[in-house]
Every structure is written in C-alpha cells, then in structure tokens.
Amino acid sequence: MSLIKSAADIASLRKGGSLLASVLEGAAQQVRPGLVLRDLNAWIEQAVRDGGGQPSFLGYQGYPAASCLSLNAEVVHGIPDGRVLKSGDILGIDVGIALDGRFTDAAVTVPVGEVVPEVEALLRATYEALHAAIAQIRPGRRVGSIGATVLACAELAGLGVVRALTGHGVGHAVHEPPEVPNAAKATDGMLLQPGMVLAVEPMLTTGSGAVYTDADGWTIVAADAPWAAQYERTIVVTKQGCEVLTPWSLERLHPTG
Ligand code: MF3
Ligand code: CO
How do residues 199-235 score in pLDDT, each as one tens digit? Predict the structure, then answer.
C-alpha cells in the first residue's frame, strides 16, 4: 500500500472507476417509489460482477452487503433490507469495487419522486460542495483545502457537516491513509502530490451534522435532522489538478492550471 499510485495502478483505477460510475448511474436510474432496497442491492452486486469487478464492501469488517443504501436521515452505511421507497424519500447509494485488485469508491444521493424544497436544496448543496472541493485539488494544496471548501459551502447553505466521518485514501484497499475531513482549515493536513488517490465524500445534514450509530452497529444516522446527503468520488491528484476516476458524463477532468 503506497500513498503514490503508479501509472499502472491509475490505468486500472480508471477502468474500475468507469465500471463503478456506470453501476451507480444504472442504480440511480432504478430509484422510484415501490423499489425494495434489498432488490436494488442485488442488482448492484450483479452489475459489479458482470462488469468484471468485485463488490469491495461485502465482508469488509463484516459488512453484509455489496452496497450501502442510506434512507432519509441515514447518512451512510445503511444496510439494504426489505424497506420500500416512497415518493419524497432520498436514498444514498454508496458502492465500492475492486477491479484487478485496485479499489474505487463512489456514492450519490437520489430523490425518490417529488421531494420538498428543503431536500432539493440539501442535495444541490452537497453535490456543489463535492465539486467545489474537487476543484481545489492540485499539488501544493493540502488535504485540508477539501474540508475547508466543504465547510464553507455548508455554512453558506445553512447546513451541517458530518464531522464524525471522513473521506480517505483509496486505491489499494477500501480505506487507506490519509483521512480526508469534511471540516478543516486549508492549512491542515498533508500536501497533495501527483499520484495520490482519494475518496472525497462530503456528508451534510439539515441539522448540526451530529450523528449516532444505529443499533444494527453500522447505520450512521443524523442525530438532530430528518435529512442527510452524501456524494462521493474517487480522484487522483495530477500535475495540473485532479482527475475524477469515477466520472459521470462530463466530469472527468478538473485541470486547475
Ligand atoms: N464508502 C464507505 C466509506 O468510505 C465504505 C463503507 S465500508 C462498508 O466509509 F463496509 F461499510 F461498506
Ligand atoms: Co468512502
């Protein structure tokens, strides 16, 4: 496990990341009232395997599924079960895959049918925080520039940052150093260098950002709010800026000069 990934690592991560992005996109397209969480998880696991990947969350520290599906106030690590989606819900879909032994991690939060304006604003702000943070990434900046940007976006939107959980290094394992906090000072943390691979994953709530762990031992839930959102991408720091390894259409390159 090394902080700086090789060109061969990055080529594999790009392949795995494309598969992961297409699985997430396919999963997001199925989200509608009536969908059963366990069925969505089964579709995700099959799509990962059909693409030649392995679901990296399955069995990780005993986690029982290929995806984390987190509903409404649940922030992350929700376990897929028999619950049925209804209009007005939001669903976080978080998937990790290993392809050729290289690990990528990405997540999206999807509205189910019609959501209230407060929820739409939460989704938009969390997505914008992710992309504003990604736009900061370049050699010479510090890891803290990510958290400083997420925090500023959240404060502007009147939303709370979940501080109990962080993004992380990724590439050779599900989780690697360094931690990537979502609330930090730009002068905090290690210097970003070309070849570092990071999972950037802002988590915001309509409350303070405080969370607790559910009795199932996994699900992280907002402690003082009905709504939480998370978006996540795996990126590699380049000479110029960074490249999103798990891109939706049109979001791969973020050269920052
Ligand atoms: N994407 C999750 C994270 O970075 C990984 C979940 S591991 C699991 O925290 F075991 F909870 F699935
Ligand atoms: Co992650």
Answer: 999 999 999 999 999 999 999 999 999 999 999 999 9
Q: Ligand 1: which of 48, 70, 97, 175 to mutate, judged by most atoms within 8 Å of the beta carbon?
A: 175
Closest atom of ligand 1 to CA, residue 165? 9
How many distinct structural domains can be found in the chain? 1
Judge whether 237 lies within some domain: yes
Q: Which helix (H) or strand (E) holds 221?
A: strand 220-222
Show the domain range for 31: 7-246
**What CATH number is attached to the domain comprising 14?**
3.90.230.10
Residue 256 pLDDT level (bands cut at 50, 70, 90): very low
Ligand nearest to the CA of 218: 1
CA dist 64 and 29 (Å) reads 24
The reply to whether 254 falls in a domain is: no
Query: In this predicted structure, what is the pLDDT of residue 249?
Result: 63
